[in-house]
Design brief:
The chain is built from 23 helices and eight strands. The chain has about 425 residues and is an alpha/beta fold. The strands form two sheets. A four-stranded parallel β-sheet has the order 2-1-3-4. The protein has a four-stranded parallel β-sheet with strand order 6-5-7-8, with helices on both faces. Strand 7 (about 385), helix 22 and strand 8 form a beta-alpha-beta unit. Helix 4 (about 70-75) packs antiparallel against helix 6. The longest helix has 19 residues, at about 225-240. The mean pLDDT is about 90.
Length: about 425
Amino acid sequence: MQTHFTEEDLKKPHIREADRVLRSCVHCGFCNATCPTYQLLGDERDGPRGRIYLMKEMLESPEDDTQVTEETRLHLDRCLTCLNCETTCPSGVEYHKLLDIGRAEIERRVPRSLPERALRYGLRKALVDPKRFKALLALGTTFKPLVPGSLKSKMPPAPADAGTRPAGKCHTRQMLILEGCVQPSLSPNTNAATARVLDRLDIGLTPAPDAGCCGAIDYHLNAQEDGRNRIRANIDAWWPHIEKEGEAGVEAIVQTASGCGAFVKQYGEMLADDPDYAEKARRISELAKDLVEVMREEDLDALEIEDEDERKLAFHCPCTLQHAQKLNGAVEDILRRLGFSLTPVQDGHLCCGSAGTYSVTQPELATQLRDNKLDALEAGNPEVIVTANIGCQTHLAGAGRTPVRHWIEIVDEALLPASANPPAAPRP
């Protein structure tokens, strides 16, 4: 793709990066074939190729160009950032980097209305603080009949009891775990189940209470500097456990939400130009592992799984696991190795519509995508749908159809009793 940036333009780092990404695109259109929004809407501007052209025109245009309007922003807003297009692209176009640049530019050039700004600000403030979110969730549960429909579906029934979480300090091998911002309230059993399963594998989890939201919510709602500040705060919280004097530090930072995991793996890229944090951020990204990456390297026979669990499971592979982290098939392989029965799922590459806060900011499209995804997941009549990301889990469960759990909860429930481990949480 030809670009027409001036020499003055190319002195700006974000324009140089945009130019590099744009020039790698051969506008073949393969990306449209797997783009969820293009499949729903059939509008070239709602597919990756069209959005690339919109961003190119905007970035090449003068500041006062009247053709850069709210309509341009609408088509960028409709992108799920699922990265299906990057998996499909034969030219290796790093679309997500261009999208970050384009969204920041349109936000600057075409300010949002007050209601839109209020919604996005509210989401950022409500979701990123675990204590605040827990209080708001409790308030919403109490007054659920008064909650707007798009938010009501995000309020799950009472989650599974988290049970007892092993301290893990007795193990030589130690890992950090990102507790998350909404997951402790929406699915507290996820990280507790992770701790119990890893405990059976002789791995302990070191607490890092000062680590908070991974930064993705702020960043993807175009508060990019706030997102980077959260990255720096997490690095500060984790670093003492990584660089320990006189003893080995933790060997990994475990993520049980694939959306957080995908973002933490980008820390090195996000802070590459920060002289104080660049090297630390790079190291954090190296240590970041999705839970499935930890599990697949271990001797799973040590888990001692019971043989009686005959439930059929359908696995929903989140976009952040398969397209961002390139771990498609990894969870399914582990579940099969442990003896679980998985039903086939058609079009497993397509997004469920959760996409962080997308299900709130674009509820109509998100609902269509969710219902299509559930139809595919339920085609094999599973008793439980399992996934690897709290956003997908909550979004799919909001339809009130088949129960949706994190896959590690199912593994935890199947562990044979051991004197050192508490009983698993009850099955749905």
